[in-house]
């Protein structure tokens, strides 16, 4: 290379620190800026040897090689900076042809700097590779998140997330549809106060009692099957949900709630439960109706028809036909055994209600509690001993007939309740919360003068009016003797048929004997006398046994007895009867059988005549 302007340009533009060395003078003829920076000083016109740490001979050998080969490289020559600090250099020598001087261009590669550059490049490459990897991971997670979003949104269950403060972090599509809220309306807001603020019954639902918050506090998954969330339109939906707390590096991050709208299912469940309860109720009712009807059929065996030709029986039959066409409440009065219960059956059978039950309630000698339970029925656990739901007789008699027997004996407290039921036209089972409408006809019977009972203050007037819309009367048998032969024949035939006895006929003398007797027990007594005589006769002659003497020696003959006299005689008779039965009232040999009366009637008479044990227990 010629030492001219080309050389100087090459020197200036060389990327390496480069010097131009006059070898013979050991003088640096020129250098570029990089060389000054490398040696940390300006080098022009300075000797090279102060910067050389290798032996001068090594440098001489190197320069010879450069001059000889034109170019030479060495990595072993040592140099130092101006301040003496060593440099690790690779030296590139180029011989520059010159006419008068031996010039050599020395370029230096700073090996330390190169190492540093390499290390940095390596680090940068490493960082670049890390960034790429991070971008890949980021992309992967974005992908996963997108897929998760797709899955969350495709799920049929409502899913939402809340952070540890209870604020919504995400709400999937199903949840938005079920709740009527957009996710944008909910994200970042406290969800409990928006969708879970009240219980279904309208009570406030404080967040500290909310199971979702509990799942936070107790670090447990909570499952709730019966709760309500509130929609944007203010309507509740019944939900079941699972709340699972979520943790981020061991720190509570919030919870994920997965819920399902079970409104329809709960609705159907309730309908099913109601239907099953209804079926069960009907089953019990039917069972009880059946039981009741069986006993009724047994007890009304003889109520096949009303026998008799007397004007009062004809009148009774006409009234039965008349009243049977209506649903009017009827009051049948008359002495014991005159056919009041038979009349009730006849009205029921002739009415449109005949396919529904005729339900009898005995109102005498029963407590208020018993009557309430019997008529109204009760729910299980309404009181001690109420072990199952029971329908009352008012329910059994729905659309049928309710027979209140011995109605005058109803306890006063119950009269008030019954009057109320009839006025309100509804009642309630004991322990129940719903009312049942009353739709039935009530036929009451009594052997007392109910109007007189009202006068005496023993019977409520309002109830009397309710029950006696259509009053009827069964006359005493002694006031319609023309019926006696018909009735006697009717009972004789019926008994013979029923007990398969040889046929027996009533003689004229028999009829006369029957007509001569006063029949204090009325038709029931006649029925008993005939039945007993038929059994004893066994197809032979009928012989009657009367319990009260027809013609007593002490009788007053033709004298007319006052009502007080009659009652006194009736009382004496009852005491005698109790003496004979030794105080026994019902069953065989009891006072009721001897008198031809129902045991309940005998009990109520003992009570009304105020007969004490001392009076009959003479032993
Ligand atoms: N006219 C009649 N025809 C046929 N049987 C009758 C007649 N009257 C009453 N009987 C019969 O006499 C008996 C007593 O009648 P029932 O029980 O109806 O009287 P009651 O007035 O209701 O008596 P109590 O007040 O004591 O309850 C029954 O067996 C009934 O069938």
Automatic annotation (TrEMBL):
SUPFAM superfamilies for this protein: P-loop containing nucleoside triphosphate hydrolases, PYP-like sensor domain (PAS domain)
Ranges in a coiled coil: 265-296
Taxonomy, superkingdom: Bacteria
Record domain PAC: where: 218-274
PROSITE patterns, A to Z: PAC, PAS, SIGMA54_INTERACT_3, SIGMA54_INTERACT_4
TM ranges: none
Span of domain PAS: 144-196
Pfam families according to UniProt: AAA_lid_14, PAS, Sigma54_activat
Keywords: Activator, ATP-binding, Coiled coil, DNA-binding, Nucleotide-binding, Transcription, Transcription regulation, Two-component regulatory system
Single GO MF annotation: DNA binding
Segments forming domain Sigma-54 factor interaction: 306-535
GO BP, one annotated term: regulation of DNA-templated transcription
PANTHER family associated with the record: PTS-DEPENDENT DIHYDROXYACETONE KINASE OPERON REGULATORY PROTEIN-RELATED (PTHR32071:SF117), TRANSCRIPTIONAL REGULATORY PROTEIN (PTHR32071)
Subunit-structure text: Interacts with sigma-54.
Function, as annotated: Required for activation of most nif operons, which are directly involved in nitrogen fixation.
UniProt-recorded name of the protein: Nif-specific regulatory protein
Organism per entry: Yoonia sediminilitoris
């Amino acid at each position: 290379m010629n030492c001219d302007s080309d050389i100087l340009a090459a020197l200036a533009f060389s990327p390496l620190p480069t010097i131009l060395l006059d070898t013979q003078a050991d003088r640096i003829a020129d250098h570029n800026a990089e060389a000054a920076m490398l040696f940390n000083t300006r080098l022009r016109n300075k000797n090279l040897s102060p910067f050389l740490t290798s032996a001068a001979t090594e440098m001489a050998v190197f320069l010879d090689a450069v001059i000889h080969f034109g170019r030479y490289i060495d990595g072993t020559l040592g140099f130092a900076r101006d301040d003496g600090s060593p440099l690790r250099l690779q030296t590139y020598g180029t011989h520059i042809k010159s006419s008068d001087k031996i010039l050599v261009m020395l370029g230096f590669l700073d090996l330390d700097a190169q190492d540093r550059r390499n290390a940095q490049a390596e680090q940068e490459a490493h960082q670049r590779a890390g960034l790429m990897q991070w971008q890949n991971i980021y992309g992967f997670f974005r992908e996963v998140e997108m897929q998760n979003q797709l899955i969350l949104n495709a799920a049929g269950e409502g899913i939402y997330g809340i952070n540890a403060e209870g604020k919504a972090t995400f709400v999937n599509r199903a949840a938005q549809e079920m709740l009527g809220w957009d996710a944008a309306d909910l994200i970042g807001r406290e969800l409990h106060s928006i969708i879970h603020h009240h219980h279904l019954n309208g009570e406030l639902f404080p967040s500290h009692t909310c199971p979702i918050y509990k799942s936070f506090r107790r670090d447990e998954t909570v499952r709730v099957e019966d709760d309500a969330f509130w929609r944007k339109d203010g309507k509740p939906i019944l939900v079941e949900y699972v709340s699972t707390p979520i943790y981020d590096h061991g720190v509570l991050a919030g919870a994920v709630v997965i819920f399902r709208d079970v409104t329809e299912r709960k609705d159907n469940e309730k309908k099913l439960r109601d239907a099953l309860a209804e079926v069960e109720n009907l089953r019990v009712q039917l069972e009880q109706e059946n039981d009741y009807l069986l006993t009724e059929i047994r007890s009304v065996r003889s109520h096949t028809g009303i026998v008799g030709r007397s004007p009062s029986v004809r009148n009774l039959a006409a009234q039965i036909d008349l009243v049977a066409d209506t649903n009017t409440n009827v009051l049948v009065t008359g002495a014991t055994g005159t056919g009041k219960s038979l009349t009730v059956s006849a009205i029921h059978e002739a009415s449109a209600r005949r396919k529904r039950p005729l339900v009898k309630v005995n109102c005498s000698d029963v407590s208020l509690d018993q009557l309430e339970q019997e008529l109204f029925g009760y729910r299980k656990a309404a009181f001690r001993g109420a072990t199952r739901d029971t329908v009352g007789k008012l329910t059994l008699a729905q659309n049928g007939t309710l027979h209140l027997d011995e109605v005058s004996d109803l306890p006063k407290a119950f009269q008030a309740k019954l009057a109320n039921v009839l006025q309100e036209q509804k009642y309630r089972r004991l322990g129940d919360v719903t009312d049942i409408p009353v739709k039935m006809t009530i036929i009451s019977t009594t052997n007392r003068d109910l109007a007189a009972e009202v006068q005496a203050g023993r019977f409520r007037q309002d109830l009397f009016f309710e029950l006696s819309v259509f009053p009827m009367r069964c006359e005493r048998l002694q006031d319609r003797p023309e019926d006696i032969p018909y009735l006697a024949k009717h009972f004789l035939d019926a008994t013979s048929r029923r007990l398969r006895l040889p046929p027996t006929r009533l003689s004229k003398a028999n009829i006369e004997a029957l007509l001569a007797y006063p029949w204090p027990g009325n038709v029931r007594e006649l029925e008993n006398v005939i039945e007993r005589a038929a059994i004893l006769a066994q197809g032979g002659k009928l012989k009657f046994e009367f319990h009260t003497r027809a013609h007593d020696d002490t009788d007053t003959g033709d004298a007319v007895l006052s009502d007080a006299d009659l009652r006194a005689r009736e009382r004496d008779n009852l005491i005698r009867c109790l003496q004979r039965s030794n105080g026994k009232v019902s069953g065989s040999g009891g006072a009721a059988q001897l008198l031809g009366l129902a045991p309940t009637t005998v009990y109520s008479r003992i009570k009304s005549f105020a007969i004490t044990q001392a009076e009959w227990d003479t032993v």
